[in-house]
Amino acid sequence: MNPIQAFFRQVSDRFVALSQGQKVAAVVLATVTIGSILAMSFWIKTPDLQLLYANLSEQDASAIVDNLKSQNIPYELSNQGKTIRVPANQVHEIRLKMASEGLPEGSDVGLEIFDKTSLGMTDFIQKLNFQRALQGELSRTIKTLDAVDHARVHLVIPKQTLFIREKPKGKASVTIKTKAGKTLNEKQVQGIVHLVSSSVEGITADNVAVVDVKGNLLSGSQETNAGAARSSSNYQHKRRVEQELEKNILAMLEDALGQGMVIARVTADLDFEKNDRTEETYDPDSAVVRSSQTASESVVGATPTGGVIGAQAQLPAGQNEGGTGTSGQPSKRDKNNQLQNFEINKITRVVSKPTGTVNKLSVAVMINGIMAENDAGDEEYQARTQEEMDKYTQIVQSAVGYNQERGDQIKVENIQFDRSVEQQRLQDLEREKNIDLAFQVGKYILGLIFVILFYTRAIKPMITWITTSAEDKEEVAEEVAEEGKSDAQLAEEEEMKRLE
User: Fold this and answer.
1) Where do the TM regions start and end (predicted)?
2) Taking CA 495 as the corner, what is the angle to CA 489 and CA 498, rounded to the nearest 5 degrees?
3) Which residue pairs, CB below 8 angstroms and at least 24 apart, start in 158-165?
4) Which residues pair with 379 in a beta bridge?
5) Where are the domains of the chain?
6) According to the model, what pLDDT value does residue 392 have?
């Protein structure tokens, strides 16, 4: 017989030898012991639950719970089933799995409404379902935006008829609830407007209204939106320039001084006016012949009898030297004409000034000092030397492209940073970690104490009672009775024994 069989045989023999009351007590003791061990193990191994989703619709909550059940993942429901908690070490993994399966979908009804159709559906119900599907799909699309927490779309689709010359226009309204700490800019609002108008036939952008949950109108007229879009674009360009310059300053200084030792702010004055200038330059010294024309004329013939017509013919005889002196003598006349057209060199230049050029930069940089040990061994703040500050100023000038003629201003100061809030936050985090650790360790310590007390106060006395025979019980009872006697009774018994 092996030791295991011998052990169970011995236990069986001892159990058979027990009285009826002892058998009942043994069964109760075994049941209570096993139940206590299981309860303690379950309590110790209960995972810490963390929020998975909150404010869920009934459809989403049901789908997520079914998914968790299929994966045998423990969960906890609260807030009337709208909040689901799962083990903390599986939260992110479960969210990724749910997202891959399209959960949560939201309470909006999309095109899946046509997956379940009935033969008896009327034309009115079909049109109504189509409108609901459009509204639901648009709501889901709008909720994919990073800043949008919830969206609801209402459509007014005009009824199509053949007897109206002018087609009625549809309308749409969108209600937006943004996430905590986030807002929608004009560009995003216009994107929502054009999304709705482009998705529904018969609805133009002018007939789409976007409001927030507080009733504020976010969309406006096209002219207003165009001006606001330009202003927003200019502001965003300005911020990009400033942030890029701040990044350059921090990249150069923090590598040398340490993370969080530098604070830089840049204000850029940009010129967004668009100027076009046309310049024409003429160079007379570089003239070239464009065209040339030469004409020659020669006339040969006799002079009329009356002489030459004109003042010379009126002179007295002998004074007309310009004539031939003889009437009817032949004469010759030559005529040359030359015409040249010159082309002057002309340079035409169109100068366009780009928008967003920098007019002026204002830069402010704060540099923290250092903590060094003094003679007493305590840490104290020490400011940086003027030589160091001059060196850092030159670095900042190089980082932002300092231009003195432009009127740029750069100020670099050594200021002690207030780290009390950060230190308090770190202390709070450390305290929370210690509390969590103490709670985890405390569970095991409490479990151990409970087991020890339960064994010494309940299990051990019951085991002793079960394993003790009837004769031993009588002796124990007598000993207990002896211990329970008073001093007077003991003295009286001793006196009786002495007299005997």
Assistant:
1) 24-44, 437-456
2) 145
3) 158/202
4) 373
5) 49-100, 120-220, 281-298+331-347
6) 92
Measured between alpha carbons, how far is 194 from 188 in angstroms, rounded to an integer? 10
* CATH classification number, 49-100, choose in 3.30.450, 3.30.1890, 1.10.10, 3.30.70: 3.30.70
pTM over 0.85: no
Q: What is the pLDDT of residues 264-301, one digit of tens each?
A: 999 999 888 777 788 788 777 777 777 778 877 777 76
Is the pLDDT assigned to residue 137 strictly greater than 70? yes
Residue type, 113: I
State the CATH class of domain 120-220: alpha beta
Tokens representing residue 479 in the block = 């000993």
* Contact of 134 with 156, CB cutoff 8 Å: no
Q: What angle do CA 225, 228, 230 make, to 5 degrees?
A: 110
Peptide bond preceding 304: is omega within 30 degrees of 0, i.e. cis?
no
Six-digit token string for 201:
């036939």
Q: By the 8 A CB rule, do 269 and 359 touch?
A: yes
What's the pLDDT at 325?
Answer: 47
User: What are the tokens at 138?
Assistant: 């648009």
